[in-house]
Amino acid sequence: MRKLNHFSDLESFRQRLQEKRRNILSTIIIPNGTCCQASNSSAVIQAVLKEMAKQGADKNIHMHLTGCHGFCEQEPMILFEPGNIIYCRVNPEDAKEIVTKTLKNGEIIERLLYTDSVSGKKARTEAEIPFYRAQDRQLLQYNKWVDPRSIEDYISIGGYRALTKALDSISPKTVIEEIKSSGLRGRGGGGFPTGRKWAEARLAPGDEKYVICNADEGDPGAYMDRCLLEANPHLVIEGMMIGAWAVGAEHGYIYVRNEYPLAVQHARLAVKQARDIGLLGRNILGSSFSFDVDVARGGGAFVCGESTALMASLEGKVGEPRAKDIHTAREGLWNKPSVLNNVETWANVPSIILNGSGWFASKGTKGSKGTKIFALTGQVKNTGLVEIAMGTTLNDIIFNIGGGPKGRKAIKAVQTGGPSGGCLPVSRFGIPVDFDTLYETGSMMGSGGMVVMDEGTCMVDVAKYFLKFLQDESCGKCVPCRIGIDRMLEIVTDITEGRGTRQQLKLLEELAETVEETSLCGLGKTAPNSVLSTMRYFFDEYIAHVDEKRCPAGVCKKLINYNIIEEKCNGCGVCLKSCPHGAIKGKKKEAHVIDPQLCLRCGICVTECKFDAIAVG
Amino acid sequence: MIQQVTLMIDGAPVKAAKGSSVLDAALEHGICIPHLCHVPGLKDTGACRICIVENMKNGSSTITASCTLTVQEGMVIRTSTEKIQKLRRNIAELLVAQAPNSRAIQDIAVRCGVKEVRYPFRNDNCVQCGRCVRYCAEIWRANALGFVGRGKNRRVEFPFGIRPEFCKNCGSCILYCPMSVTPCGGPMKRGEERLCGKCESQTLMAPGVVGACVRCDLGKGFSCSRHMQ
Ligand SMILES: Cc1cc2nc3c(=O)[nH]c(=O)nc-3n(C[C@H](O)[C@H](O)[C@H](O)COP(=O)(O)O)c2cc1C
Ligand code: SF4
Ligand code: SF4
Ligand code: FES
Fold first, then answer.
1. Against a cut of 0.80, is the pTM above it?
2. Which residues share a beta bridge with A416?
3. Which of A576, A463, A460 is nearest to A530 (CA)?
4. What is the mean pLDDT of chain A?
5. pLDDT tier at A375 (50, 70, 90 boundaries)?
6. What's residue B201's pLDDT?
7. Residue A60 pLDDT exceeds 90
8. What distance in Å separates the CA atoms of residue A5 and residue B3, rounded to the nearest whole number?
9. Helices (DSSP H) in A232-260: which residue ranges?
10. What is the pLDDT at residue B207?
11. Quick one: B10 and B115 in the same domain?
């Protein structure tokens, strides 16, 4: 590959690529991210490729393998352009029909179209699918046009234009002003104003500065950073380059979670391609700007995502946080000024530079601008990655995009922000989703996890789950976090097992406050949120556990009993056969009974009984 | 010449060398902020959180450990507000419930005003203050000890669990370990752990001035920094 030596080289290269692409008549797009591969997309790709070759359709039809398209539940998907037709849940066996009918004759296979989970109607295009319609996909929209392994794809859709614009005509200071007035805030959890961080690093004394991309993403259930880096690595790199230009850094790191091999692979390849073409290295495009990036693998712990722990880990030390009374923007990696931003934060930068801060600031609420990607999971019909303008209500996300409850039970709460966040009840679903409102309501934006819970969820049990996670993930360095979380878990476990007292509830609250106020790093400071928010909104459930020794949702095993309702049981005997503990007795055609002494509360009988005859309470 | 900055600690103007910590500045002026993991001359890590203070800025305050907080001109620090006393008491309670088998820990609990322990006692033999690890690494440059594991499983260990040849058996780790000071009434057996409270009289603390340093004898045992000056 010939190196590009000037801004105009990049433009003419882009024109040549676009020229070439104009000749492509139709494109078949198959998303193939980590999540897609988990639903067997690779097999579908193989089958379609084979079929295309067999039927000679591979000459004039372009096949495009991209990152995740967001609607993970419907994968493997296939998209067709032009026309924006979407097929869902495709099997390898469908390949033949797809090639003969759709690719060669433009015929649509009804059976493979998306069926709306609410109305039952078939939908052909993205615009007809409610899951996509209610979103505002500013960052995710590119995924379908780029093969993450091809820098040419990225350049042909206008990639690196923001960089040349900045290098060519905007001074570093103005770039920072632009980011400041766009109102961009960090997407990694804290919501710190990005422009302010950059300005601090720019003004900090020292020639050696760093920019770092935080792709450690350890929140259980969150995967938007993985998706972005996997699907569009050049977007993130371009953002980092603009940041480096603004603060005066010549070196950058992408710190990727160890469990994300495909993201590492794509990021490394992207860096290599950018280097080969002269977009990374010395005197980029003939300018005075020099910059290069290394891709590092994470230390394999949740706490390594915390800024100081991440930097310690990059330095080759144990990934433990340290006191941060001086910002890392002044004293960060190797005590040098360092700008650490989340993947999604970096990904937002190029379009702000291209379209102007006013464009970005026109979306969102007073204190939170732009769009945000959430990983919508749990008890909703449609799960996947959801990008919405800040300020969209929880109701919109959960009922319009998410399609409402998955099962028969009503939705009761949503957990946002991962282990640092909290649970909000349905009565608060009217709030606009932005940094400040979520915080005031007792939860957090976090990195964007959103777990929907229905009436079958016990909120005390949810608190216990997150405490357990944090107990394992706390680095253990400071007392309030290491011992405090452990003691909170001890109390909550007591409550879920019927030993809880009113005094313990008071102690729990006091302890939560202590851990929040005095822990060293963000992990400990936010750890009590799950407890505090569930106590705030679902105190009646705590009281039921403590006073009545009852779990209203029927989840806490020590507090529930299984009973067969005589009137509903017709004595089919299925439960008797399915119970692994031999706890069910009864004669054929007569009502059966469960022996509470033998019953281990596994719940298998409930799922097996076809007559809803087994009550939990 | 050493550059100095002036800051306010509990209403008193205090001069301190630029770059020193708020805890050092306070101790030097006789304001005792209770502390555990801090050892003069070793790098502070902010592990025990006993030394927390309120750092007042623009009308609001942040709570942070004073041993890792660097002094700055015009800083306003409160070491013993009601809020701090309560939080410190709660941390000390967590510590003494976890590792009651030490006079140093019992002493800290008393100094921080712990009157009852609301958690079931455990009998850990290490509070992970990291004094031993840092002393070994920073003074002797031996690195014969280190932390392994994380969260609940974090503990002090020799490399690979075996005492290395380069450990000179100097005993500093034991000298500086708060857990090596037995409680006045002798070691506490499992099941017999309690809040001892005997040292209360020795610290001669008037109620309300929790944390005020009286150069009590107790600090000698585990090399409280006041006794090393
Ligand atoms: C325990 C803990 C874990 C974190 N994990 C992540 C993470 O996985 N990814 C991330 O971007 N930020 C994470 N953060 C936030 C970072 O410390 C930091 O604030 C962020 O990367 C800054 O980037 P931003 O300003 O773009 O959000 C974590 C913070 C804490 C306290
Ligand atoms: S708050 Fe938790 S994770 Fe953070 S330094 Fe303390 S022990 Fe480690
Ligand atoms: S062994 Fe003693 S000195 Fe070392 S960390 Fe544990 S309590 Fe502190
Ligand atoms: S002495 Fe400051 S945190 Fe332990």
1. yes
2. A422, A450
3. A463
4. 93
5. very high
6. 58
7. no
8. 50
9. 233-247
10. 41
11. no
The pLDDT tens digits of the residues spanning A449-500 come to 999 999 999 999 999 999 999 999 999 999 999 999 999 999 999 999 999 9
Q: Count of CB contacts below 8 A, A vs B?
A: 96
pLDDT digits (tens, 9 = 90+) for A10-30: 999 999 999 988 888 788 999
Q: For residue A165, is pLDDT > 50? A: yes
The 10s digit of each residue's pLDDT in A72-130 is: 889 899 999 888 899 999 999 999 999 999 988 888 999 999 998 778 889 999 889 99
Residues with Cβ within 8 Å of A615's Cβ and at least 6 positions away in sequence, in order, are A562, A563, A564, A565
Give, for all 229 residues of chain B, the pLDDT tens digit.
Answer: 779 999 999 988 999 999 999 999 988 887 878 889 998 889 999 999 999 999 999 889 999 999 999 999 999 999 989 999 999 999 999 999 999 999 889 888 888 888 899 999 999 999 999 999 999 999 999 999 999 998 888 999 999 889 998 898 999 999 889 898 888 888 999 988 999 877 665 554 444 444 445 555 545 545 555 555 4
Instruction: State both tokens at A541.
Output: 């459930």
Architecture, CATH, for domain A561-616: 2-Layer Sandwich (3.30)
Residues in chain B: 229
Domain topology for A371-457: Ubiquitin-like (UB roll) (3.10.20)
- The answer to whether the peptide bond before residue A82 is cis (omega within 30 degrees of 0) is yes
Q: Are strands A338-342 and A593-594 parallel, antiparallel or unpaired?
A: unpaired
Q: Give the one of B90, B97, B152 whose C-beta lies nearest to A514's C-beta.
A: B90
Closest CA to A448 of A139, A169, A102, A151: A139
Q: Determine contact: B72 vs chain A, CB below 8 A.
A: no
CATH assignment of A144-361, given 3.30.200.20, 1.10.3720.10, 3.40.930.10, 3.40.50.11540?
3.40.50.11540
Give residue B212's region: left, alpha or beta (phi > 0; psi -120 to 50): beta
Beta bridge partners of A615: A563
Q: What is the DSSP string of A63-115?
A: EEEES--S-GGG-S-EEEETTTEEE-S--GGGHHHIIIIIIHH----GGGSEE
Pocket of ligand 2 (CB under 6 A): A 303, 321, 474-478, 481-482, 519-521, 523-524
**Where in A245-383 does DSSP place strands (E)?**
251-256, 292-297, 338-342, 371-378
Residue in B38, B89, B90 to test binding to A, most A beta-carbons within 10 Å: B90
Which DSSP string corresponds to chain B? ---EEEEEETTEEEEEETT-BHHHHHHHTT-----SS--TTSPP---S-TTEEEEEETTEEEEEESTTPBP-TT-EEESS-HHHHHHHHHHHHHHHHH--S-HHHHHHHHHTT-----S-----S-----HHHHIIIIIS-----EEES-GGG-EEE-GGGS--TT-----HHHHT-GGGS--TT-PPPTT------TTHHHHTPPTT-TT-----THHHHTT-GGGG-
Q: Which of A 306-335 lie inside 8 A of B, CB atoms?
A: 318, 322-323, 325-326
- Residue A78 CA: distances (Å) to CA of A72, A95, A132, A146, A402: 12, 11, 15, 15, 21
Q: Is the peptide bond before A76 cis (omega within 30 degrees of 0)?
A: yes
Average pLDDT over residues A574-579: 90
Q: Which residue has the tokens 């709306």?
A: A116
Distance CA B85, CA B155 (A): 29
Q: Which residue of B has its CA nearest to A491?
A: B119
Nearest Cα residue to atom 8 of ligand 2: A475
Domain ranges of chain A: 21-133, 144-361, 371-457, 460-547, 561-616
ipTM of the complex: 0.91
Residue with tokens 């298998």: A604
Domain hosting B90: range is 86-123+184-199
Which of A471, A472, A518 has its CB closest to that of B52?
A518
